[in-house]
């Protein structure tokens, strides 16, 4: 059933992609002419994208959108957020409703080769997990005949089904359109567990009425590398999004922060730093952006680590350890490709 649903979605996206390919050849030029980046984000998960008490979107994905706007326009406010559900995100991108998805979207083989879209570069590593009532079960294999909330259109549907099939244990899936709906159903007792990526579970737990009543089981059942998605028909736009994301990581590797970017731009003699911050123009010129594109992004939003800490760090309610999202020099998987 899941396979048929995926193929139907793939066919729909491919049709939209083929219909709009000619008009989408120059995404960057269209964004500049519009004067605004249109960024597809989630419908609301703490840490990645959730409106605060003033209605302002906060989180890692929305900050990545703002940083990309700063790289293009030198203004992080020149972005319009389009919240998209898991089941509509790829069709919306293929139809040209958004320029890019920064939306907790996992790279998989079938998504990569069948949707007419491209996963750009991984900016977050995660794995599928389950949240349950405290003291209910110690491990997932104990959840025989459990009712499990899942979000429709995600890799988590298949991961859950595959795992329970592999241990010959029945369960009852209950599908919801949005994460907040699944979380509400869990708290209301309509589900025994909610299965999704562990970082999203941490965000959900942080917004629950009584977070201490819930526990995220330690087991992980998949690899979930998140990356921006764009339409496959525009190599120039792929380069911009790819190297923008890489630049934020490179800035952290070099110790360039929101606070010191200006000073380092003026004083550093390191050729890599001078290239990244636009003292020499070749990186910006290669992308058809201003020479200060990366400098503007870091000065506006900070480096990768600053964005992570602002969304998940110890000063947030989520307080999610970086784990595999540490820099490679610190034992993690986050690694900037050479920018030269």
TrEMBL record:
Signal among keywords: yes
SMART domains linked: PBPb
Pfam families: SBP_bac_3 (PF00497)
Signal peptide from the UniProt entry: 1-24
GO BP term, example: amino acid transport
Keywords for the protein's UniProt record, in alphabetical order: Signal, Transport
Annotated InterPro entries: Bact_solute-bind_prot3 (IPR051455), Solute-binding_3/MltF_N (IPR001638)
The Solute-binding protein family 3/N-terminal domain, residue ranges: 36-264
Protein family according to the UniProt entry: Belongs to the bacterial solute-binding protein 3 family.
Stored PANTHER family: AMINO ACID ABC TRANSPORTER PERMEASE, AMINO-ACID ABC TRANSPORTER-BINDING PROTEIN YHDW-RELATED
The protein, known as: Transporter substrate-binding domain-containing protein
Organism of this sequence: Dankookia rubra
């Amino acid at each position: 059933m899941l396979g048929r649903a995926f193929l139907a979605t793939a066919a729909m996206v491919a049709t939209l992609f083929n219909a709009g390919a000619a008009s989408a050849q120059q995404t960057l030029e269209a964004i500049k002419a519009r004067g605004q980046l249109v960024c597809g984000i989630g419908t609301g998960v703490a840490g990645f994208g959730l409106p605060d008490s003033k209605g302002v979107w906060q989180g890692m994905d929305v900050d990545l959108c703002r940083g990309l706007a700063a790289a293009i326009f030198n203004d992080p406010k020149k972005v319009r957020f389009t919240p998209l559900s898991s089941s509509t995100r790829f069709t919306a991108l293929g139809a040209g409703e958004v320029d890019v998805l920064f939306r907790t979207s996992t790279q998989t083989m079938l998504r990569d080769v069948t949707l007419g879209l491209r996963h750009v570069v991984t900016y977050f590593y995660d794995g599928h997990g389950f949240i349950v009532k405290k003291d209910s079960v110690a491990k997932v294999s104990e959840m025989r005949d459990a009712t499990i909330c899942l979000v429709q259109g995600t890799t988590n549907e298949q991961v859950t089904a595959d795992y329970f099939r592999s241990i010959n244990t029945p369960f009852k899936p209950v599908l919801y359109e949005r994460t907040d709906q699944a979380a509400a159903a869990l708290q209301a007792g309509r589900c025994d567990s909610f299965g999704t990526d562990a970082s999203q579970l941490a965000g959900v737990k942080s917004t629950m009425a009584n977070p201490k009543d819930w526990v995220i089981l330690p087991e992980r059942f998949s690899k979930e590398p998140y990356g921006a998605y764009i339409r496959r028909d525009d190599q120039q736009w792929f380069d911009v999004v790819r190297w923008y994301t890489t630049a934020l990581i490179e800035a952290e590797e070099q110790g360039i922060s929101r606070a010191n970017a200006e000073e380092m731009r003026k004083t550093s003699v390191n050729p890599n730093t001078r290239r990244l911050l636009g003292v020499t123009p070749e990186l910006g010129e290669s992308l058809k952006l201003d020479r200060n594109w990366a400098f503007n992004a870091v000065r506006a939003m900070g480096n990768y680590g600053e964005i992570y800490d602002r969304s998940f760090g110890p000063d947030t309610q989520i307080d999610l350890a970086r784990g595999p999202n540490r820099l490679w020099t610190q034992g993690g998987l986050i690694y900037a490709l050479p920018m030269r």
